[in-house]
Amino acid sequence: MMSISRWKIIAVTLATIFGLLFTLPNLLPASTLSAMPAWFPKQKLNLGLDLQGGSYLLLEVDTNALRAERLVNLAEEVGTTLRGAGVEITDPTQTGGIISVRITDAGKVDEAVNTLRRNVGAPLAGAIGGTDVIISTRPDQRIEVTFAPQAQAADAAKAVDQSIEINRRRIDSLGTKEPAIIRQGTNRIVVQAPGESDPERLKNIIGQTAKLTFQMVDETTTPEDIAAGRVPRRMMQLPSEDGYAANYILERRVLVSGEMLTDARQAFDQQTGRPEVSFRFNGQGARRFGDATAKNIGKRFAIVLDNKVISAPTIQGAITGGSGVITGNFTPESANNLALLLRSGALPAPLRVEEQRTVGAELGADAVRAGAISLTIGAAAMFVFIILAYGLFGVFAALALVVNVLLMVGILSLTQATLTFPGIAGMILTLAVAVDANVLIYERMRDEAHGGRTPMAAADVGFKRALVSIMDANITSLISALIMFQFGSGPVRGFAWTLAIGVVTSVFTAVLITQVLIAWWFRAKRRTVLPIA
Questions:
Q1: The model scores a pTM over 0.70
Q2: Predicted confidence (pLDDT) per residue in 256-290, tens digit
Q3: CATH classification of 208-357, choosing from 3.40.50.300, 3.90.1720.10, 3.30.565.10, 3.30.1360.200?
Q4: Are 215 and 310 in contact (CB under 8 A)?
Q5: Could you tell me the end-to-end alpha-carbon distance of the chain, in angstroms, rounded to an integer?
Q6: Sign of CA dihedral 209, 210, 215, 221
């Protein structure tokens, strides 16, 4: 006797209702959907770049610029450390990635080396007691400092990881759903932003380093000195965008950096109405900013963004509240973009655009139509095959396939997973897997009927014994899908996700729904001959 427990009927009923409810929003116009009650699901399928259009960028992280910046910082750190320890030196120089400094007193070379080994460098991952710098002595009382090769490789890998995460936050702030940001090779990043039709805006947002620093302006260097190139080693010359001076001479020492910001927002000056950017520091940044402004009242400090001075106001008093504003030649859009960049954080290294593509909405619509047509043709072919092969039981299997499609679309809509063209291929494949499960069940029924069992007993045994083979096949498919999702990227992950969903829904519909329908048919008709025998 076929088992048709109450829980099976409830499960089939709830699954069908779920599939209908969460698939329906994809078929309704926006006006109708907005008029639906609050409890009615309103999530639609989240289409990928190949289905709805958008922007594609291939970016390369400039790890050479990162290394150069780290060497400059290392040279400053070496000089500051030795001078702070009372060791007289010549100014550090950098050649070929090596920092060289000469100790004036030959008797203090060993002391200088020990001082640097205690205070310069950070612990090196994977090396017990090791640091990320190599310190060695050379003739003529010279000490050379350079980064360890392992540290350079680790810095480059970390820069790529940080760039991916920072750009994800930036793109999310634009309102783009489910951007695909993927590492390619060692130092490249692929960005796919579905629905973002303006690649230039995308480039401006994700390509800007947005490194913000606050540095003191050097008031002692004259314009004549600047023109003659007589800029002190401890100073730096940067171009200006504030409209008051072409260049500024700044101290290399950074008072506060943008890493200490907790918030940045677009605002407007209450007196002039001009756009500006308000910001707030964390506790450490607030203390450092307050101390720096208290010690330098009457002097000018520069607000530097990506090595360009955007403002250089005079400190009128100690700013201890941990907040302030950045003024400049902003438009409302540029002020909003700068606030977005500062909130997201600065990129560790510049990004270069290696390739740029735009997928038009028309191409996306064509892909959607092609996907829908291919899904319809594939489903229709399976319906025809299963009905011709198994008659009424084939109709039951076709109904189960319909519910299978509803469940897959409903789950994708609910989870807002991105559906790509390969994802549609995954859906078609799962329909084939579902038909295969019904073929296994029905052929087992035939064997049992030919073996002398009654029709109902043959159907019952057919479901039970075919289930083992069905579970084996689908578990291996599910494992493959999970591996592809874990280690794949972009379209591969989209295919794997729809395949994983389809495996679960296929087993449910092919086994449970057809079993309930066949059991109802037997109870209603009480046939003595198996229709497919």
A1: no
A2: 887 788 888 888 888 888 888 888 888 888 888 88
A3: 3.30.1360.200
A4: no
A5: 18
A6: positive
